[in-house]
Design goal:
It is a single chain. This protein is α+β, with helices and mostly antiparallel strands and 801 residues long. The longest helix is centred in the N-terminal third of the chain and has 20 residues, at 185-204.
Length: 801
Amino acid sequence: NFHYSNHGQASCLRCHAVAESEFTFSSTKNISGDELRFRVDNSWRDLPAAQRPASEAELFVDVFHGASTPAALVPDRGNLVADPLAAPNAEFVEHFQLGRGVTPPAPDTVASFPGQWADHVTAGPDGAEQFITSDNCLGCHGGLGGPPDGISMFLRTGAAYGDGFNISPFGEWRWSPMGLAGRDPAFFSQLATEQAILDEDFQQHPERFGGDRQVLERAKSAVVNTCLSCHGAMGQRQLLIDAVDDPGLDPDFKRRYVDVYTALTRAQESQPDYRYRKYGNLAREGVSCALCHHIDEARPTPGKRWTELENFLMTSTSGQFPYTPPDELSGPYADVAELPMENALGITPRLAPYISDSKMCGTCHTINLPNVDSKQFEFPALDESAKLQATRLEEEYGVDYASFLTRFPHSIEQATFLEWQNSSFAEEEGFLSCQDCHMPNDFHAGGLEIDQLSSRIASIQDADYPTAEHSLPPAEIEVPFRDTYSRHELVGLNVFLLEMFDQFEPVLGIAEADYMTSASTGNRLAIENMVDQAANETVGLEVAIVAAGDGRLTADVSVTNLVGHRFPSGVGFRRSWIELLVLDGRRAGEVIWASGRTNSVGLIVDGLSDTPLPTEFFAGNQGQPHYHGIPGPDGEQPAAPPITAQDQVQIYEEIVADGDGQVTFSFIHRDKHLKDNRLLPRGWKASAEFDSEILRQFMESTDPQGVAGDPDYDSVPGFAGRDSVRYEIALPPGTDPVDLSLRATIYYQAFQPFWLKRKFEISGDSPDTQRLYFLASHLDTGGTVIEDWKLPLVSVTEPVR
């Protein structure tokens, strides 16, 4: 876990791959009396100041010479991050405990991931395998931070090397949830919980597995491989590929393989499952460079006359994507320098428009999973899709793990792509793809304001470098500036995950200091990106005073979804809610009435008290209903009530029940929706309006649930993605409304409290869940943007007039 790595292959080949042969420029010319000539390119003068090279004087300063101790390279943590708590948060421990009689782990016993530089699978002498790790890419696509190396894909904020922000593809991907997916502690705890739930299923309902424990183990294996088809896709898929030609390999990817890594000492060679180290190295990379740039469009299905979208949904979702050949990588540009990558990796970069297609993202953002405790087959198209994908896996790789899951009815567990497809963002007029929003080409962070970035997309030894013998011709190695440069920002709002990776580097294994640029701002920049997105691009908020007087106050709060899918989207344990406070001006703004306040660990409390609402942990299997309460144009009262008490809160969330009717956050026990009032995107329409039966069944997952009587969720032309809720507030006796104001704030949580509580109870004996418990109980949110375990989005204050 040292800040810097000596795995220098990629950074060496950044230059040496442009040699004519053998990666060398060796020549006797420089000692035979011939002069060296240099080409000067002054095009940099037109760049924004933050992207310009250093002055001539700075070019001769080597910042690493004379650094007396490694402490000179300790990163500046900025003001958005914190150090972990030395002892568990007492209030967290009060409300969350590990089940099964498990004692919380001591710091030195927490299961840790190998450091990021153990994620190392390189291209060999015969070329690259299907998947290789990102350290093969970072040399050229990792940026340069200043003198003496120049500036590329980097924004300088100071004179020293590494002062600034690494906006290279590697630099921003590294700190995105995609770059962290293979080490995501919440994901691995969820996986452990699903395994524990299957064990409970077998004990309580052995008939679901034919009473055969081997069938249970097959089910558990199928869940692991299905989930890692996205979170650890390169390792899981490369093992399938290799096992076809190597009968000694078991194609069943085990969870424990993620912890195996290539030995650096003889002792480390004794790791269990050491033969599978390559697949662990690949899996920990998450959604990495070689994964996305190898994804290909869906192949036509013989005998089916499906549209392109139908064929994609039926064959390429849940991480079951086809891919391009190992010796090609897809990109958005036709005019690229091919020879350097061919020399370095044996891979040719190719223009492939599909890399800019939202369906490329949709393969892992449309998840079709079995409900193993249900016998109700409601969606034949989803079940057929699962069977088609299982058949392809069996035919191509000889594995039947997915076939086992087809005995159960399927439903859509994550529908972000479908939500986008069912919105005005996917329409020709006003079209915005996933990439348009999550890979912006501007920069507004760290005090820098750049509306249009212009940058090379790679750093190699091109014609701007000093002359060298035996170099490829300049035309073969020219890397042009791109006005269409797109950042690999790739973030949502999960600041909670970023804070964990920042505060617990020894456990999660990602170094703050960047290898190529030495910048230590990667995590900080990702958090700033999330905060900016939260404040400016997620929701709109309005407060309207309807009436005030006679000891009562009536107000409407309206929230408008600005994103191209539901909000919150993705996994079902995200949530957002409205906090509404009544402030008394005569008492220096004291809060006299509240809905949606929380305690220090993000539990919503009852009004002005510190008592968590029973609905936070679904006491009696009851959560917060959906509220509306605004009369229609003819005075009719909606079925969804207004908020009239401080223990009532408008929470935008998805709540599902298992086969026994109990609230669950299991991904494979989603038998019935109790509520799904997440904000719908602009342009949404009900699934019943789709003519295609395949689309109707897939799009059913985008329909709201439990919102009967709320016209804001009715499918109408020009659907605005808006929700309004009425508050009818009884004021304390003697309160003068004239001195009052209302403050509404939208908050977001990546981890719903009940999800954490049940996870700790169900799989508390798992090292993965114990790790999450340690991280969550020691996470210091004080002074960060997620103080009190909540991320504020937008806040509006309205005086009562």
